[in-house]
Design a protein that fits this description.
The chain has a 5-stranded mixed β-sheet with strand order 2-9-8-4-6, with no helix packed on it. A 4-stranded antiparallel β-sheet has the order 1-3-7-5, with no helix packed on it. The chain is an all-beta fold and about 130 residues long.
């Protein structure tokens, strides 16, 4: 019906404009080599992130890691100020809350991930019948 309508030629296409959302704040990301380990294992960490579109400056000036937010006492090292701190050893059983905070000097943003450290199986077990 539209193809044969006498008023078809008078229709005009309106330009569609969609405004992209403007991000504000700081957006950190954590990459962990694994999140389920046994006590004494190491996990390799690296950080990434970005500042929001309207933040000034629009670059990350500091990286702050806390590998034992709840104070379990088994993370070594317990903190780091490097974007990619590398290996962290978790020597006690428990759930470790790991937090990365990024900042541009004015705006901060944080993200957390849980690392679950289970019991290491005993060695040298002997069974008798």
């Amino acid at each position: 019906v539209m193809e044969n309508s006498p008023r078809r030629n008078t229709l005009t296409a309106a330009a569609a404009t969609v405004a992209a959302p403007v991000l504000t704040g700081a957006y950190p990301y954590i990459t962990a080599s694994k999140t389920s380990i046994t006590e004494g294992d190491q996990v390799s960490f690296s950080g990434a992130g970005r500042m929001g579109d309207n933040e000034t400056p629009n670059t990350i000036s500091s990286w702050s890691w806390n590998f034992d937010v709840d104070g379990l006492g088994g993370a070594s090292p317990a903190t780091s100020n490097s974007q990619n701190p590398g290996n962290v050893t978790f020597s006690k059983v428990g759930t470790y809350k790991v937090r990365l905070t990024i900042s541009n000097g004015t705006v901060n943003g944080s993200v957390t991930v849980n690392i679950v450290a289970g019991l290491k199986s005993p060695s040298n077990l002997q069974f008798t019948n």
